[in-house]
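The methods section describes the discrete structure representation at length, but only in general terms. What matters is that the chain and its backbone geometry are given together, residue for residue. For illustration, here is how one protein appears when written out as sequence plus structure tokens:
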Amino acid sequence: MNCWFGPCKQCNLKHNSLLHCDNKVSNDSLQAAPREEPAVGSSQTAMLHSVAVKKRDNNSCISLTVQPVLLSTALVEVADCNNKYHTIRALLDSGSQQCFVAESLCRTLNTKMLQSTVQVTGVGHCITQSTQSCEIKLRSKVHNYKRSLKCLVLPQITAQLPSLNVNINFNIPDNVTLADPNFYSPYEIQLLIGADLFWELLNEGLIRLPTGPCLQNTKLGWIISGPVQTKSLRINQIQCNFTQTLNVQLKKFWELEEITMPINNYSKDERACENLFSSTTLRDGKGRFSVRIPLCESADSLGDTFTLAENRFRSLERKLARNPEYKKMYSAFLKEYLDLGHMTRIHTYSFPTYFLPHHGVFRESSSTTKLRVVFDASAKSTSGKSLNDIQLTGPILQNDIFSILLRFRRHRYIACADVEKMFRQVLIQPDQRNLQCILWRENPSDPLAIYQLNTVTYGTASAPYLSMRCIRQLADECNDDVISQVIKEDIYVDDLITGHDDKNMLKFICDGVFRALSSGCFTLHGDDGYHEDGRAGQPPAEHHGPWGIRIVLVLQRLLVQETEYHHTLAE
């Protein structure tokens, strides 16, 4: 049947013009590369903005006919810290409630910036975070006008303006001094002047140009703004809705909330560690664990380390001689090591023997040991291998810190403690102690002595696994499910962070955890505990020391890399 009406006036196809719509392509996997075409002219083409996307995002490509619009820009002078003025391009925006400055300009001016966290809401309720503010001294290039602006700092204000070169055949009057003589050329915007100053800048005088834009007189000069009448400008735009961040966050949320089942998805090496621990671990009369170092290859593959350890020790000895107070703490630490039976002096050794270089780490914030001696099990022997190279690290037995802190925040009453000398409460079986030898003497006039370390040593690859595996074993042996769960889920490194909504129940948990860990010779240590009403909790009577540490100290220690904390914390 023949239609009486003609084809579409837009595309010349056989449908009514009222039914015409622009070509729209929907694709689940759209990829394109950015390209830039010549500036606007007689045959005008615009930049093609393209984004490479993956299949999980929905994208559309729409052909539009867009007329370019000039935004009001001005060249202004701003002062640096030495009161030297720099010329920049500013954007005048009466739709903004604040003035904004680019972070790069602040660095150029060496401007003092203040911490000021503000959420900036833009078009489509898009939120940008500004964390700093500053004051900018501004003056006009064409009039005697000065003003100080309080600005929020952003990494970038906008893209270069205008986005394309513009035809400048506007017939601007000769007596007009433009605020931005190069308004037609794209350039970086480093300052945005908002409505708090915009209307103050306006002077009397408005000129409508015959080709579209308008000229407005201001204290900064005449600004030009408005649509540019030119031939059709065809712009291909691609809109992409990315949901990856939201998906990742939602996935993490469900992973944290789901009930974890005891699934041992261990690798071959991790299963080997578990089998070795289960089949070889011993307990002495006090309940103390005696474990074997899990090795992935024979200790015979290690070469000589005596010369390396000796050279490192002599360097350390010179450092100790220059700092008597440091030497005093270092000697006291190793004397305690010896007095507690954690190391033993030996007079002979045979191959294979691994000598651990050692040095001190000073911890001013520690409430117990200001200086700790740490041992370097990664020092290479003459064979090119170190003790850590031939060790297995074992599976991870602790929950992640984020999960622990989320549970911790739910409790009305809290208790915190750390396991005192956690690694050193676990013995290494005697036939492997030759892999943990050190050189030491208190006085340079004494002969160099050799000591064997008898316990799990921090600095060795398997130390975290061995100590936590012993803690986990005590939890498995505990008859109370609540106590067992607390030990398994609320310990991170050597810190126990737990709580409960019932005060009496929390005291019961504290007593139970203390008894369970004491059965393996692990002792809890800390300052006074705190709960909801701020009063110090009373430690159980049979405890050797008070239970818990200040909540702010725990959170500072665990979140120092993620959180800004400005209070001075007492020891």
Observations:
- The chain has three domains: 19-63+235-241, 70-229, 269-559.
- Residues 24-63, 238-244, 527-557, 559-571 have pLDDT under 50 and may be disordered.
- The radius of gyration is 36 Å.
